[in-house]
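Q: What residues go here?
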């Protein structure tokens, strides 16, 4: 009997030692995953997402959803075209400011569309137009990102993710439960 209790005690000690060691390694792994800085130290800080006063005034002056969506997409197109030119010229700081404004117009427009979402076809077509334009902007942002020095690339990579998320948010209302009408019995 004594040999079997010694065996169980030594096995229990081994198991508890193994579990403690595994928990320690897991906590080190988890801590190291969270301890890594979100933004690399050598990367340029992200630009402010600021909507210039004149653009905000122009957007706020238009109350029609379709016209406002078209205006916002035109502003985003102009910002992206300017960012492409600045990238080619090597003016990366100015390019960052321009992309920050692009980001602000994108967020502002998505919020506007969500606030005015009443389930009508008019809103759905504007969400669709916005999403299709964002899809085109993605390829151009990727081209900018590929040509950037590594210290500027991190923000643009994050902006690409933000544009993808905005596309997802723009498509969600199109597939809502209330979108497809069913026959009521």
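A:
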């Amino acid at each position: 009997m004594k040999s079997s209790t010694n065996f169980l005690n030594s096995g229990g000690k081994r198991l508890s030692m193994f579990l403690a060691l595994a928990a320690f390694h897991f906590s080190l792994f988890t801590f190291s995953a969270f301890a890594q800085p979100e933004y690399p130290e050598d990367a340029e800080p992200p630009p402010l997402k600021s909507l210039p006063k004149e653009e905000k005034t122009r957007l706020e002056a238009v109350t029609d959803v379709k016209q406002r969506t078209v205006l916002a997409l035109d502003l985003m197109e102009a910002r992206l075209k300017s960012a492409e030119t600045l990238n080619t010229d090597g003016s990366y700081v100015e390019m960052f400011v321009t992309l920050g404004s692009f980001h602000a117009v994108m967020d502002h427009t998505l919020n506007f569309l969500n606030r005015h979402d009443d389930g009508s076809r008019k809103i759905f077509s504007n969400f669709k137009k916005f999403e299709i334009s964002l899809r085109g902007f993605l390829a151009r942002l990727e081209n900018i990102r590929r040509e950037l020095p590594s210290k500027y690339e991190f923000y643009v990579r994050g902006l690409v993710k933000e544009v993808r998320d905005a596309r997802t948010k723009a498509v969600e209302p199109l597939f809502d439960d209330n979108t497809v009408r069913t026959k009521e019995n």
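A: Context that may help when evaluating the design: Residues 57 and 70 are 15 Å apart (CA to CA). The mean pLDDT is 81.
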